[in-house]
C-alpha cells in the first residue's frame, strides 16, 4: 500500500485520495473552509496550503520540494510524498489567510449564533494573529432574508462557496450565486428566486461561519449548553441519521448525522423542522378514563394507576364475555414496542387480531441530482412493525384489512404517535360498540370516544429500532425524558404485563428487549444485523488545568 508522510507521521492511503482526505482519515488536522466531502473541490479558501516534497523519477526518485505551496484539498496524495502544514512557509500562509478573511469580518462572536462551533473562531485562535493590523473602515454588507428557513448575514461570509455548490450540485436548484468581485463579492439569491428547496436547511449546517443562519434556532440557545443524542428520522421511511440537540428536557434543533450508506451528510427540511409537535400544545400528558373527572397534574401517579386499572378491568370484562381483543400497532412505533404490545395483547387473548396502523404517503419519491432521495412514505417503521407482528401472529393485517378483521372483537388497543391527525372516518365506524384503549401522543377525535387514554412518548423521548424503506435496521437513542407525565408505549406495555402478573414493574431497556426478540421469536437480525450508532469520543479541552 502506498505511504505518505504528513507532519512527521507515515500514513497508508488509497490511491485517488487527496492529501487532506488522508490527513482527515488519520485524525490529523489541516485547516480548511471550502472543502466539504459531499461537494466539488474549488480550492479557493487557500488556508489548507502546505509544503510538499515529492520523489522525482528523473533524479532517482530523490525527494525534491515543489516550488509553491499546494492546496492539500485538491492535490492527490502520492507514494513517498512528504507534506508539512507546520513549516514556516505554511504557517505564514495560514496567518496571512486568516488576516485576509478577518479584514472585513465584524468579529461579533458574542452575538453570533455560530459561536462555539465556528471554524473561523477556532482557526483564528489556532492559526491567526493575536492582533489585527487593519486600520481602514470595514466593508459593511446587508443582512438578507433568503428563504423561509434561512437568513444571510453577508458581512460574516468568507466566500467559501459551499452553499452555492450545494444548491448547484446536490439539489440542482441553483438558487444561490456569487455576486460582485473582489472585496465587494457576496452571496445572494438568483434574481426573483428564494432559497426554498426541500433541503435548504443544509446550507446552514455546511456554512463554516455564522453567515447562514437558521431562523428557527436563531437566538434560542447557546450551542455549548446543548447535549445531543444519536437518533433516526422518526417522521418518514428514509431512516436518515440525526443528531437531536437538547438542553434541560427541551429539543432545540435537529441536524444530520453523517451516514454514507443512508443519508450521507444531508436531511430534508421536513425532518429538520417537523418535530415541533413534541413540545406542542396538543400533547396528551395525563391518562384519561371515561366516566371520571380529568386528573390534576399533582395526581399524576394516581392518574396512571387509575388508567392501568381501568385498562385491565375493561379488557378482562371483554374477555369474560367471550369476545376477542385486537391490537393496531402504529408504524410510528419502534420494533421493540411492537413486540411488547403484541406480547401483552396475546397474554390477554391468544387469538388476538393484530395489524399495522395507517401508513401515510404524500406525493412520490424524489431523487435529487446529488443522489439524495426524499421518500413519499411518512412513517419510519412500517416494515419493522410488519416484521415483528408476522412472528407473533399468523396474519399481520394491513390497515384496511385490520378494520375488516376486528368486526367480532370486543376491544381494540390502538396506538397513534403520528405528528398530525391520523384518524379516518372508516376507523371511527369500525370502532362503534367496542371498548377502545388508546395510546397516543396528540389530541385526536379518538380521545373523546376512547374508554381509556394513555399518553405515549414520541421517538425523541425513547430508544428503540426502526427499519427504513430499504430494510435497514437502525437503533436510536433517547434524547430527552418523556415530557410531563407521558410514558413510552414500551413502558406502558411492561407496566401492564407486570400488573396482570402481580409482579413488580421493570424499566424499559431496548437492548434487553432486542435480545428477547432474538431468543423468543428467532429475530436474530435485531442483534446480528442491527446498525447501532457509534459512541462519541468525549471532547477534551486543550487548555492546561492549574490547581489553585
Description:
- The protein has 548 residues and is an alpha/beta fold.
- Among the domains are: 3-98, Ubiquitin-like (UB roll) (Roll); 288-528, 3-Layer(aba) Sandwich (Rossmann fold).
- 25% of the residues lie in helices and 19% in strands.
- It is built from 14 helices and 25 strands.
- The protein has helices at 19-25, 88-102, 119-127, 162-169, 202-206, 269-273, 300-320, 335-348, 382-392, 399-405, 425-430, 489-501, 510-521, 525-528, and strands at residues 3-6, 9-12, 49-56, 62-65, 70-71, 82-84, 143-145, 150-153, 176-179, 186-189, 212-214, 227-232, 241-247, 250-256, 288-289, 324-329, 353-356, 366-367, 373-374, 396-397, 409-415, 435-440, 452-455, 464-467, 473-476.
- The strands form seven sheets. A seven-stranded mixed beta sheet has the order 15-23-22-21-16-17-20. Strands 1, 2, 3, 4, 5 and 6 form a six-stranded mixed beta sheet that branches.
- Strand 21, helix 11 and strand 22 (435-440) form a beta-alpha-beta unit.
- It starts with a strand and ends in a 20-residue tail after the last helix.
Short recap of the structure:
The protein has 548 residues and is α/β, with parallel strands linked by helices. It is built from 14 helices and 25 strands.
Amino acid at each position: 500500500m502506498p505511504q505518505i508522510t504528513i507532519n512527521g507521521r507515515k500514513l497508508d492511503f488509497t490511491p485517488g485520495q487527496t492529501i487532506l482526505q488522508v490527513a482527515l482519515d488519520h485524525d490529523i488536522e489541516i485547516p480548511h473552509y471550502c472543502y466539504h466531502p459531499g461537494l466539488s473541490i474549488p480550492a479557493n479558501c487557500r488556508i489548507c496550503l502546505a509544503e510538499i516534497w515529492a520523489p522525482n523519477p528523473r533524479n532517482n526518485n530523490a525527494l525534491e520540494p515543489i516550488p509553491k505551496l499546494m492546496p492539500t484539498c485538491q492535490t492527490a496524495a502520492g507514494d513517498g510524498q512528504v507534506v508539512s502544514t507546520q513549516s514556516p512557509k505554511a504557517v505564514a500562509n495560514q496567518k496571512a489567510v486568516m488576516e485576509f478573511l478577518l479584514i472585513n469580518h465584524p468579529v461579533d462572536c458574542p452575538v453570533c449564533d455560530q459561536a462555539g462551533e465556528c471554524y473561523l473562531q477556532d482557526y483564528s485562535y489556532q492559526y491567526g494573529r493575536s492582533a489585527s493590523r487593519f486600520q481602514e473602515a470595514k466593508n459593511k454588507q446587508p443582512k438578507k432574508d433568503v428563504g423561509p428557513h434561512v437568513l444571510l448575514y453577508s458581512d460574516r461570509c468568507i466566500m467559501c462557496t459551499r452553499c452555492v455548490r450545494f444548491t448547484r450540485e446536490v439539489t440542482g436548484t441553483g438558487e444561490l450565486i456569487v455576486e460582485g468581485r473582489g472585496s465587494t463579492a457576496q452571496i445572494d439569491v438568483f434574481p426573483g428566486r428564494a432559497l426554498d428547496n426541500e433541503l435548504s436547511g443544509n446550507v446552514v449546517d455546511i456554512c463554516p461561519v455564522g453567515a447562514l443562519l437558521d431562523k428557527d434556532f436563531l437566538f434560542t440557545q447557546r450551542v455549548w449548553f446543548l447535549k445531543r443524542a444519536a437518533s433516526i428520522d422518526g417522521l418518514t421511511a428514509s431512516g436518515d441519521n440525526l443528531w437531536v440537540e437538547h438542553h434541560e428536557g427541551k429539543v432545540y434543533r435537529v441536524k444530520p448525522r453523517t451516514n454514507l450508506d443512508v443519508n450521507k451528510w444531508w436531511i430534508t427540511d421536513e425532518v429538520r423542522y417537523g418535530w415541533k409537535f413534541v413540545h406542542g400544545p396538543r400533547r396528551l400528558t395525563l391518562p384519561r378514563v371515561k366516566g371520571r373527572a380529568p386528573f390534576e397534574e399533582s395526581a399524576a401517579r394516581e392518574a396512571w394507576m387509575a388508567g392501568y386499572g381501568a385498562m385491565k378491568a375493561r379488557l378482562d370484562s371483554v374477555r369474560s364475555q367471550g369476545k376477542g381483543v385486537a391490537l393496531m400497532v402504529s408504524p410510528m412505533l419502534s420494533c421493540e414496542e411492537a413486540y411488547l404490545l403484541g406480547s401483552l395483547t396475546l397474554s390477554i387473548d391468544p387469538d388476538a387480531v393484530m395489524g399495522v396502523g395507517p401508513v401515510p404517503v404524500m406525493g412520490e419519491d424524489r431523487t435529487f441530482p446529488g443522489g439524495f432521495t426524499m421518500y413519499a412514505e411518512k412513517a419510519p417503521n412500517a416494515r419493522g412493525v410488519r416484521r415483528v407482528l408476522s412472528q407473533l401472529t399468523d396474519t399481520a393485517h394491513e390497515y384496511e384489512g385490520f378494520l375488516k378483521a376486528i368486526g367480532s372483537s370486543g376491544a381494540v388497543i390502538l396506538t397513534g404517535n403520528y405528528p398530525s391527525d391520523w384518524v379516518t372516518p372508516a376507523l371511527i365506524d369500525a370502532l362503534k360498540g367496542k371498548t377502545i384503549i388508546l395510546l397516543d401522543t396528540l389530541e385526536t377525535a379518538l380521545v373523546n370516544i376512547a374508554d381509556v387514554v394513555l399518553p405515549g412518548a414520541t421517538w425523541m423521548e425513547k430508544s428503540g429500532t426502526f427499519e427504513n424503506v430499504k430494510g435497514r435496521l437502525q437503533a436510536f437513542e433517547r434524547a430527552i425524558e418523556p415530557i410531563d407525565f407521558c410514558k413510552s408505549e414500551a413502558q406502558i406495555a411492561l407496566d401492564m404485563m407486570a400488573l396482570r402478573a402481580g409482579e413488580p414493574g421493570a424499566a424499559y431497556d431496548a437492548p434487553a428487549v432486542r435480545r428477547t426478540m432474538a431468543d423468543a421469536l428467532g429475530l436474530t437480525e435485531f442483534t446480528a444485523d442491527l446498525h447501532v450508532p457509534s459512541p462519541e469520543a468525549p471532547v477534551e479541552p486543550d487548555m492546561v488545568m492549574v490547581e489553585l
